[in-house]
């Protein structure tokens, strides 16, 4: 006498169908992700506490007493629209402007540097401002177009 077959019993001449999930690939993927996160977390977390400045998108108006210094693509320096002979002429003009300013109110220098200009002429402008005792220096840029 034979026992009745159930719905999950395979016929004796066919292979049995395995209906379980193989979890080995899942475990492999999870271990790789764990290793990636363990490697990247120390890079993201910095150990030195630094208070970073907040970005301000505040347009500045050019005041009549502001000094606008331009540097063109060739590296020539301009006082408003007047070309200067070089950094020494700029320093002399800045010293004169600082002398004429009321006490406690140093003039503000706004630097307009051409994007194609080398860094050196712009650095010479900043150095001339520092040597003249002017600490209020700002750079005029054009806002990026919205994308």
Q: Key terms for this structure?
A:
single chain; 147 residues; alpha/beta; five-stranded mixed beta sheet; 3 helices
Write the layout of secondary structure elements.
Blueprint: H1 24-44, E1 67-71, E2 77-79, E3 82-83, H2 87-100, E4 109-113, H3 119-131, E5 137-139
Parallel strand pairs: 1-4, 4-5
Antiparallel strand pairs: 1-2, 2-3
Helix pairs in contact: 2-3
Give the H and E element order. Answer: HEEEHEHE
Give the radius of gyration.
35 Å
Structural class: alpha/beta
Q: What would you call the shape?
A: rod-shaped
As residue ranges, the low-confidence spans are none
Averaged pLDDT: 79
The fraction of residues in strands falls at 5-15%
Binned, the helix content reads 25-40%
Major beta sheet, specifics? 5 strands, mixed
The span between the termini is 81 Å
For the largest sheet, list the strands in their spatial order. 3-2-1-4-5
Q: What is the number of beta strands?
A: 5
The helix tally amounts to 3
Plain-language structure description:
The structure is a single chain. By secondary structure, this protein is of the alpha/beta class. It contains 3 helices and 5 strands, in the order αβββαβαβ. A 5-stranded mixed sheet has the order 3-2-1-4-5, with helices on one face. α2 runs parallel beside α3. The model has no long low-confidence stretch (mean pLDDT 79).
Short structural description:
The chain is an alpha/beta fold. The chain is 33% helix and 12% strand. The termini are far apart.
